[in-house]
Automatic annotation (TrEMBL):
UniProt xrefs under SUPFAM superfamilies: L domain-like (SSF52058)
Organism, as annotated: Papilio machaon (Old World swallowtail butterfly)
Signal peptide as annotated in the record: 1-17
UniProt entry tagged with the keyword NAD: no
Superkingdom of this protein's organism: Eukaryota
Listed transmembrane segments: 286-307, 345-366
Protein name: Toll-like receptor 4
């Protein structure tokens, strides 16, 4: 009896173990989107679920990781219910079609990852997203088709800081116009047939260009003008092989002068950058002023309330004192004097208290605003530094 039980148990165990190894990955993997909070943001993880559609998600999500799924088309209504999204990861899907209004409602979108899809053409509207700072388009093999006759509205409104066009089969770099905030331009792994400094002179904050495996088809002297430009503007550039530039042949290439046109577009970029920064500063000033005003109003209302309470108490007392006054004028004067000075003192201290409360409130509001700002910037920096595709993991995991 006992022995047969053990035999049965052993059998059951071995069967279940076998099943576990076979189906382990499948069984333990989540089949639905999961949610996580990080830095005051709500994130939805739907990565690697073999989904062909974005399921109905909670409202108010600010991060959506939908990478590694089977999404094919982005229509106007695909994302329209999630207008609060700031970080959108759609890498490794099968997206080939993007409607021009697909991101229309995402006015807070900061990071958009469309890497490793099969995008044929990018709608113009992507470049007009008002908050878009990072755009990853790496590994979309047909992207060059849309760049050949790029008819994009310039200047681009998106405040792009990072543009990843690596491995997009581009031969000729598109003319983006002025990109005043661009810092990192990744054009690695493209079969470039030309490289001109004017592709970079419109990016006056450019710090890094990745040209790894992109200039192998170019003759050495064709690189000279761009290399001189990078050196002049302190732009760091990645190459697969720097030795090419350390040759006598490169030294002997004719040294072109930096043209007035290049200088002009660079200066225009600087001017636009200053304007954008000024607009930001004035917006911040406006916020501070309105915060101060709100604080003052709260203080004022508090003061009115204190005075009202005080007056109610006073009126009650006055009624009593009138009776007393009938008894002696002298006493009444004394009472009147102390009353007046007490009221003045109370009004002043009430006003002061109200003002202080308003001021503290204002400081608190400003502090909260700054903390949120700093946290977000730091977080984004971490994600950028790691160069992460699954940036959601970084965003959500570094909560300590
Ligand atoms: C540029 O893109 C390639 C390929 O996606 C990547 O390996 C590389 O790290 C990127 N370069 C930078 C500087 O981020
Ligand atoms: C462009 O500016 C550089 C310095 O930034 C200068 O050396 C060069 O002469 C200028 N070119 C022209 C044509 O003004
Ligand atoms: C992305 O990160 C999340 C959270 O750590 C993880 O669950 C998920 O498997 C990752 N996705 C990919 C494709 O690596």
């Amino acid at each position: 009896m006992i022995r047969s039980f053990f035999i049965w148990l052993g059998l059951a165990l071995s069967v279940s173990c076998k099943e576990l190894t076979d189906l382990e990955a499948l069984a333990s993997a989540p089949t639905r989107c999961t949610y996580e909070h990080a830095y005051d943001m709500l994130g939805a993880h739907c990565g690697g679920l073999r989904l062909t559609k974005i399921p109905s998600l909670r409202g108010g999500i600010e991060i959506l990781d939908f990478s590694d799924n089977k999404l094919q088309e982005l229509h106007a209504d695909t994302l329209s219910s999630y207008s609060s999204i700031k970080f959108l990861y759609l890498a490794e899907n099968q997206i080939y079609m993007i409607d021009k209004d697909a991101f229309a409602s995402l006015s807070y979108l900061q990071t958009l990852d469309l890497s490793k899809n099969v995008i044929l053409a990018l709608p113009d509207s992507i470049f007009q997203l008002p908050s878009l700072r990072k755009l990853y388009l790496s590994g979309n093999p047909l992207l060059h088709m849309s760049f050949k006759d790029l008819t994009i509205t310039k200047p681009i409104q998106a405040p792009l800081e990072l543009l990843d066009l690596s491995d997009c089969k581009i031969n000729k770099l598109p003319d983006w116009g002025i990109l005043p905030k661009m810092v990192l331009y990744n054009i690695s792994h493209n079969p470039l047939t030309t490289l001109e400094p004017q592709h970079f002179s419109t990016m006056c904050k450019l710090a890094k260009v990745d040209l790894t495996k992109s200039i192998d088809n170019l003759k050495l002297c064709e690189l000279k003008a761009t290399v001189i430009w990078f050196q002049e503007k302190n732009v760091y550039f990645h190459l697969s092989d720097y030795n090419r530039l350390n040759t006598r042949e490169f030294d002997n290439c004719p040294k072109p002068e930096i043209s007035a046109t290049l200088n002009a577009s660079y200066h225009l970029c600087e001017k636009v950058y200053t304007q954008v920064q000024n607009a930001k500063t004035s917006r911040r000033t406006w916020l501070t002023i309105s915060g101060g005003l709100a604080g003052f109003l709260v203080g004022f209302v508090l003061l009115l309330y204190i005075m009202h309470r005080h007056n109610v108490a006073q009126t009650k007392r006055t009624a009593k004192e009138k009776t007393a006054a009938a008894a002696g004028v002298k006493t009444a004067t004394a009472v009147q004097n102390t009353k007046t000075s007490r009221r003045t003192w109370l009004t002043i201290s009430g006003g002061l208290a109200g003002f202080l409360v308003g001021f503290v409130l204002l400081l608190y509001i400003m502090h909260r605003h700054n903390v949120a700002q700093t946290k977000r910037t730091a977080k984004e920096k971490t994600a950028a530094a790691a160069g992460v595709k699954n940036a959601t993991a970084v965003l959500l995991n570094d909560v300590s």
